[in-house]
Amino acid sequence: MRVLLILLFLFGTLSQARAATDWALVHTRTMEAMDLLYNLDFVAAEKKCNEVIGLAPGDPRGHFFKAMTYYYKMSFKGGSKNDTAFWAFVYHADKVKQVCERLLDQNEQDTKAMFYLGGTIGFKGLAYVGRGETMKAIWDGKKGYDLLADAVAIDPTNMDAKMGLGMFQYMISQAPSALQPAIKLAGMSGDRWGGLRMLEEAAAKGTYAKSEARRWLSSFYLDEDLPKRAIVHLRIVKEAFPNNWYVLQQFADVTCFQLFDAKAAEDAYKLMATMDVKTGDDAYVRWVANTRLGYLSTARERYEEAISYYTTAYNVTSSSDRKNESASNLGLAYELMGDRRVATMWYQKAGASPMAQKNLARAWTAEDIVTNKIAWAYSIGLYSRVAFLADSARNHGMIPAIPKYAQVLYQQGVACSELSRYSDADQCFRDILGIQGTDPWVPPAKALEFEDYPSEVTLRKRIAREKSALDRNGK
Question: Contact, 40 vs 246, CB < 8 A?
Fold first, then answer.
């Protein structure tokens, strides 16, 4: 009788403990943990996840985002490998697995448990791909794929699960052809646009996966050569998490080099140069910011300003590779400014850098300087400057002597087109088509029959998109 009373007392106590869980507080603390995570404050995020686990140890949320803290540590570490974070992620991912499997044992249609378990398996697969273990990721990923597909089938309103499934479907559709047989054998199928649609739904309506969906959408749209769509999501994430230097850099790079808004990019890089960095990557972030600001100044032909930024970049980093790159950039800036003596000194400091060695070995000509000025201005969409430099070079009979004749003509043609000088643009492109010889840059721009050249995938996507637009307009 006494034993029965004790058991009843314990059962009642446990029931009260379960009933006493403040789920609203669990949600609030989870959102706070995510805010810290996406602001790349990993120490504070992990502490907040521990609070969530303390409030609800049998719920997957705290365990999942604690694992994601280590996934982010591993992924956003200034470009360096982080084995410690990888193995910590694997350890905490196993904790998520244990919690979710207990919940699924109690209710095999628990779509939230399916999401957290499927998502964990998916991110674990991405981590393995990053370490070169692609086949392991494929075979392990099958279970995650099925869990997420089942969760969406059972509950189509589970937008977080749609984020995970959308990621799977898009990535599978874009996997290299060499991997497709293994993916098919594993029983998975991709859906390029269906995956993107699911991610868009999750970005608009998700609970915990909203920001993650936006982050992946921005990456996928860049892969699709759709920077205007990517920047929408990058801007939202950047504004929601102002201390995330990684997203800020992506936003600035896309704004600068693909959307050609140099002013907005410059503001973002300047913010990067002074922002509070909580990941221990201060030197890397400062180096990137000052290097990009130097690029912008070089493109604008503000060489003294560029030299100031490149010098800061050179001094802030301890990485020999980054020092060499900064030294090479300094040499180029001095070269374009007309100071070959100081340029040579910096090229020598750049060590074995191929670009520095090439610049060191050759005597720069007026044609070299014009070529570089045109290329730099073109790189950030300063089309008026490109057209002016190219027109001036043509008028002085310089373009035929320039080694990269076809590229200069192409850049001039694009600039003229952007400036609505269509007859001039037409003449530039016709001149390119008439070039004879072995210039390796020309053939891919002339026909689709060529393969294995830089930016081939991007060019083919652009051509397909333009042909589709022509077909629609023709109808």
Answer: yes
Residues in Cβ contact with 196 at an 8 Å cutoff, skipping those fewer than 6 apart: 166, 170, 217, 220
CA distance 224 to 307: 35
Query: pLDDT of the chain along its 475 residues, tens only?
Result: 554 444 444 455 445 445 588 999 999 999 999 999 999 999 999 999 999 999 999 999 999 999 999 999 988 764 445 688 899 999 999 999 999 999 999 999 999 999 999 999 999 999 998 888 888 888 888 999 999 999 999 999 999 999 999 999 999 999 888 888 888 888 888 899 999 999 999 999 999 999 999 999 999 999 999 999 999 999 999 999 999 999 999 999 999 999 999 999 999 999 999 999 988 899 999 999 999 999 999 999 999 999 999 999 999 999 999 999 999 999 999 999 999 999 999 999 998 778 888 888 888 888 889 999 999 999 999 999 999 999 999 888 888 788 778 889 999 999 999 999 999 999 998 888 877 665 666 666 555 666 766 667 777 777 777 777 777 666 5
Tell me the whole-structure pTM to 2 decimals. 0.88
Q: Residue 430: is it exposed, middle or buried by C-beta count within 10 angstroms (0-12/13-18/19+)? A: exposed
Residue whose entry in the numeric block shows the structure tokens 């360096």: 80
